[in-house]
Design goal:
This protein is mainly α. The protein has 12 helices and 2 strands.
Length: about 300
């Protein structure tokens, strides 16, 4: 069995490690409490940008209290973003069900011919079936007991994971009066000519992928600040940063959230809450580390 070269360090030893690396700790009690309740490696993620790449030491002026404040900013930001992502998800589920009304088939999810890629359909169908079986929602039990286990689409959509939901949308057929064309009418936008247009399937699913990735980050209480996010949503032309960054950050994800907003009013309320949070923690963060351009407010 492999013998790992490092041993566990006590809180006192971790504080000494930070001090030896050049971090200023003005309150031992604050540091002990934070390292006990939050953890060394979770907090360390909020100080990566303060490490000199040559010396591997913290640059002068790096203070533990500032790192902790940045952590609290990021934690509140995560809760705010996750709350709005939940609104997006609920609206998307409802709008998908409404779009499927054109089929007039409550059991349309059982029909592979209704979807573009049969292999993807069967792969996702097994996952959805497992999610339905694990559900203890009253409406699922009702259908099992009274309709020979047949689960209508509107019930299935409520209990499937967001990942399964996004795969169903990705596998929808396109064309005039298709389920997809009806769904994306809820998400049209103004193009460069000022005309209202619906997003293409690639564009729309890239937005969903972006919010899905952020949803998972928030759900696992992972760091948002100074994080490179690999997913690349297709942005509306006027929102693209030039030159384009190597990696995406919260700015690109929030634009996807804007495009998928349930209502204009809900988006305005979210942006106002976001601005209040920025004001609350002014000086604790550098907004450019989340890929926000100088004129970000004009894009929201």
């Amino acid at each position: 069995m492999y013998q790992y070269p490092k041993n566990f360090l006590s809180v006192t030893q971790l504080i000494q490690k930070l001090t030896d690396a050049g971090m200023t700790i003005t309150s031992q009690n604050e540091a002990k409490m934070a390292l006990t309740t939050i953890g060394y490696y979770r907090l360390k993620g909020y100080s990566f940008h303060r490490i000199d790449p040559v010396t591997k030491k913290y640059i002068n002026g790096t203070n533990f209290s500032d790192v902790l404040k940045l952590y609290h900013f990021d934690s509140e930001l995560s809760h705010l973003v996750f709350s709005y992502l939940s609104q997006i998800e609920v609206a998307l589920r409802s709008r998908l069900v409404n779009a499927f009304q054109i089929t007039q088939d409550a059991l349309i999810l059982n029909d592979p011919s209704a979807f573009k890629d049969k292999q993807l359909y069967w792969k996702n169908q097994g996952t959805v079936a497992s999610e339905i079986c694990r559900s203890n929602d009253v409406f699922i039990e009702h259908n099992f007991n009274n309709h020979d286990g047949a689960i209508p689409l509107w019930a299935s959509v409520e209990v499937m994971s967001f990942g399964s939901l996004s795969k169903i949308i990705k596998n929808l057929k396109t064309g005039n009066q298709s389920v997809f064309s009806i769904l994306v009418q809820n998400y049209n936008f103004k193009n460069a000519s000022g005309n209202s247009v619906n997003p293409s399937k690639d564009m729309f699913t890239s937005w969903i992928q972006a919010v899905s990735v952020m949803r998972n980050i928030c759900a696992h209480n992972s760091r948002i600040y100074n994080r490179a996010i690999s997913t690349r949503p297709q942005l509306i032309g006027s929102d693209i940063i030039n030159p384009q960054p190597r990696y995406n950050g919260l700015y690109q994800i929030m634009l996807s959230m804007k495009y998928l907003r349930p209502t204009d009013e809900s988006w305005t309320a979210f942006v106002n809450d976001f601005k209040q949070l920025l004001n609350k923690y002014a000086g604790a963060y550098d907004i450019s580390r989340m890929n926000f351009p100088v004129d970000w407010e004009s894009h929201f």
